[in-house]
Specification:
Elements lengths: L2 H22 L34 H4 L8 E4 L11 E10 L5 E7 L4 E8 L5 E8 L3 E7 L2 E7 L4 E7 L2 E8 L3 H28 L3 H33 L3 H7 L4 H14 L7 H13 L12 E3 L5 E3 L8 E6 L4 H17 L5 E6 L4 H11 L4 E3 L8 H5 L7 E5 L5 E4 L5 H9 L2
Parallel strand pairs: 1-5, 2-8, 12-13, 13-14
Antiparallel strand pairs: 2-5, 3-4, 3-6, 6-7, 8-9, 10-11, 12-15, 15-16
Helix pairs in contact: 3-4, 4-5, 6-7
Length: 428
């Protein structure tokens, strides 16, 4: 019997099993998801991920994997009394997987906790059951790989895979593992492109070509990140209320996708005690004060002559608020672009308010001279603990904000050539 035919038979048998169990429980939670991938179990870490495939055994083996024979695991994953405990079932077959050791973990943000381990039975089968109050993220680990997936209260999830191709698994009972596998594919592809870009930079021997490539790195990296965000947002939109949508949103950049993340936050707010929701909610709420559409927080910092200059003093004209540091390579590249843009648009009314995160005045002043940065340049010499960095929640350098004449943030996170394109439309 070939593998594909076996899968069809197993699928039909499992559908009968699911139908019988569903008849005993009509209350199901549809707001969940699952995810697949390898790594350290941290949803905020995109490490290289692989899928799963299982073992081939006789169809009779499938009938031995039942909830009544499964390991029972009780997970109290919610402090909310609004969610009653509900049962869940996870089972599967790994063809040719008899004797393989399998570990079942509950996964959190940056952590995972082993809760059960066993060797697969002679049929390569495994199964466990338990209770949940709300969707939870788990992973199965074996042979150096893992499958991460979300389990919802009342879920019955069944995996079918072969030992020789663990990444090509079949799943019945939930769309979540496949959605998460798609999410990991997007994240892995992004990492591969960035790694290839930096490898190409290192291997380029021609000095002129090397300098050109180095100068273009911020722009190319920005394009790669935009492609990732576009694909993730499409996946999240399609996943809708599946819990994977919440997990995938944690990989978006709130500096650029805050409005989209706010909508996801609103959609999953009923899980207010869930750590994944709390993480998303904190990101959204933290960045709201410096979000597009809000007025720029007013701070005053010393300029090159020691005079305090407030951001509010720039009102009346369009202002480019620019965060940078002398010891940051990408900043030194963007400094040249910003200098050219300011020189081109200052006669038309553009103002530049540069905030350096340097901690040495001589270094700061030397860089200003070398990179020909003009306009208002300020620095409190507190380095990365600068008041400006704290108030504007600067996580990456360089960072740009465009303020309209009233002092409202109308755009952020733009770099040349997109920065010039935006300015050219604003300043005629």
């Amino acid at each position: 019997m070939n593998k594909h035919y076996l899968y069809i038979v197993l699928f039909l048998l499992s559908m009968v099993s699911c139908k019988n169990r569903d008849a005993a429980s009509t209350d199901s939670n549809t707001n969940s998801s699952g995810l697949t991938g390898a790594g350290n179990g941290n949803p905020a870490d995109t490490g290289k991920n692989k899928g799963v495939t299982g073992a081939t055994q006789s169809v009779a083996a499938q009938t031995t994997i039942t909830a009544t024979s499964a390991t029972n695991i009780k997970i109290n994953n919610s402090n909310s009394p609004n969610f009653p405990e509900r049962p869940y079932y996870v089972k599967g077959i790994i063809i040719d997987g008899a004797g393989m050791n399998m570990v079942f973990d509950q996964v959190g943000i940056g952590t995972f906790k082993p809760i059960w381990s066993e060797n697969l039975n002679e049929a390569g089968g495994f199964g466990f059951e338990g209770t949940l109050r709300e969707p939870a993220l788990f992973q199965i680990r074996f042979n150096g790989l893992n499958i991460q997936f979300v389990v919802r209260p009342n879920d019955t999830i069944e995996f079918y895979m072969t030992k020789d191709d663990l990444g090509d698994f079949k799943v019945v009972g939930s769309p979540e593992p496949l959605i998460i596998r798609d999410m990991w594919a997007i994240l892995d592809a992004t990492n591969a492109k960035i790694d290839a870009l930096h490898l190409r930079e290192k291997k380029t021997k021609d000095p002129v070509r090397s300098e050109q490539l180095t100068d273009s790195l911020p722009y190319i990296n920005d394009l790669i990140q935009k492609e990732k965000a576009t694909k993730l947002k499409a996946l999240i939109t399609k996943a809708d209320t599946n819990f994977t949508a919440l997990l995938a949103s944690l990989y978006l950049n709130p500096n650029k996708d805050l409005e989209f993340m706010e909508k996801v936050d609103e959609k999953f707010k009923k899980y207010s005690d869930n750590e994944f929701y709390v993480s998303l909610h904190n990101k959204v709420m933290t960045l709201l004060p410096v979000a597009i559409g809000h007025y720029a927080p007013d701070i005053g910092l010393p300029d090159t002559k020691g005079n305090t200059v407030k951001i509010s003093s720039m009102q009346g004209k369009y202002t480019l608020l620019y965060f940078w540091a002398s010891n940051n390579a990408n900043s030194r590249i963007e400094n040249k672009n910003v200098a050219k843009l300011y020189d081109k648009y200052k006669s038309r009314g553009l103002q530049l308010y540069g905030i350096s995160l340097d901690d040495n005045k001589n270094t700061w002043l030397t860089t200003l001279n070398e990179d020909k940065l003009e306009g208002v340049q300020v620095c409190d010499l507190l380095g990365y603990t600068s008041v400006g960095a704290q108030v504007y929640l600067i996580a990456n350098l360089p960072t740009t904000f465009i303020l309209d004449p009233s002092g409202k943030i109308i755009d952020k996170g733009l770099y040349d050539p997109e920065l010039e394109s935006r300015l050219s439309k604003l300043i005629k």
